[in-house]
Amino acid sequence: MLKKIIYSLSLSFLYLLSLSCSGSGGSASLSSVVSVTSLGLSQGLLNPAFSPTINSYSVDLKHRFDQISFNFQSSENSSFQVNGSAVAGSYPLTVGANSFTIVVSAQDSSAQRTINVMINRGRQFVYVSNVNTSSPSDTLSMYSINPTTGQLEALSPGSLSVGDDPYDLLVSPLGNYLYVANAGDNTISQYTINFTTGALSALSPVTVATGSTPYAMIIPSNEQNFYIPMGGSSGPGDIYQYQMGSQGALTPLSPNIINSGNNPWFMAITPNDQYAYCSIFNGFGDSNPDTIEMFSRDPITGLLSSLSPASVATGDKPWHINVHPNGNYVYNVNYGSGTVTGYAVNASTGQLSALAGSPFSVGASPIGLAIDPQGRFLYVANNGNNTVSMFTVETSGALTVIGGGTIAVTTPYGLEVDHTGRFLYVSSNNSNAVAMFAIDQGTGALTALGTPTIATGTNPRFIRISH
To answer: Looking at the whole model, is its pTM more than 0.70?
Structure first.
């Protein structure tokens, strides 16, 4: 006798939709109507609220990488059909409208139910660090992305006070937390992100002390650890290592510090969390070369260890560094030489080797670098000549100039591609604004949105987008 059948709507294994069927009069047959007994979400929003009489729902997803499927289980052997086709274990859902008629058969009876689910990607939120050099009152500007037009829309409230001289900021990989590196007072501000409103709430404690001049941090995909270089440390430089608690708060690992070359600035980590890279900015008059330093990460302890050899040559005054989404390539901008250096990643050792054609020429004083989530296009903010360079990323990792090569933006600093890969946002440092562009999905070329800029706080630097 079939006692129970469960259908589950699974979103990264977090969402559950249960339907049960029971026999009648002690017979071995199913009832003629399958009834929904529960419909619950551990994350996300379900609209409308659950009711056994409603067959149409919508779900707002939290993460860009949620995998969505309708999964089947039963307490006895059963066969399933969805929209007329036999299904063994699961039925994939897609973003947008999903209508599926489910027929389950056991022994000589069957039951049927039609359910409609609209799957919506949740809004992405954008955070920008602003530095008011004449006042200690520095802020983050906060926006949401209009998913249709790409225009930024200010949250309410639209700004938040943070520590002194906020440099870089980072959204954690699962989208739960935001951290700000306050280079002026040597702290990290830490917040939770409300994924439906974008509002930030301070963790306890709201700040964590660091060494001299914290800059650009990284977090592994499982959100277990946190690493941040101290840009003001030299002889040797310092990278601070932390454990991330279950609520996002940071506590020091032991040892808390791993040494690096002088003035470590930006870091990047491979998608498999196995290797990390750091730009070493020996550009302040010392005799040491500028390099990219290479580390392995222990998956159990979270501690970083230097590879051997520990570094690879790069251009003059390396700045922002990024790993390609496929994990095979690393790119960094060189502020002093006006280039991007590209490397291939040895998957077995983590060692970097220069790509053919590297370094690639860009504009003057490049600072920011962004790659679209699909790894097709790469963009560079050239702060010294008011342009953004545009490249296609070839299968070899080499960069090919798109169209005329650049697009004008006044004093660009940070830039970021949204998680759909359709829009690029660039902070305009001297204009106190963010410039907004649509990305041509075929060529990667940029076109200004209908409203091309939106105001920020004073001297915006880096941009991060929630998941």
So the answer is: yes
Same domain for 182 and 304, yes or no, is: yes
Instruction: Tell me how many degrees the CA angle 128-291-209 measures, rounded to the nearest 5.
Output: 45
Supply 357's token pair: 């054609």
Instruction: Write the pLDDT tens digit of every residue in 167-222.
Output: 899 999 988 899 999 999 999 999 999 988 999 999 999 999 999 999 999 999 99
Total tally of structural domains belonging to the chain:
2
pLDDT digits (tens, 9 = 90+) for 300-319: 999 999 999 999 999 999 99
Question: Does 381 lie in the same domain as 289?
Answer: yes
d(Cα 386, Cα 417) in Å, to the nearest integer? Answer: 19
Residues 26 and 150 in one domain: no
Over its C-alpha atoms, the chain yields an Rg (Å, rounded) of: 25
Domain ranges, residue 14: 5-120
Q: Provide the token pair at 141.
A: 């500007």
CA dist., res. 332 & res. 338, Å (int) = 11
- Reference 312, options 294, 338, 335; nearest CA is 294
Q: Return the ∠ at Cα 43 (arms to 372 and 247), rounded to 5°.
A: 85
Tokens representing 216? 């650009």
| Percentages of the chain per state (helix, strand, coil), in multiples of 5 | 0, 55, 45
d(CA 114, CA 78) in angstroms, rounded, equals 18
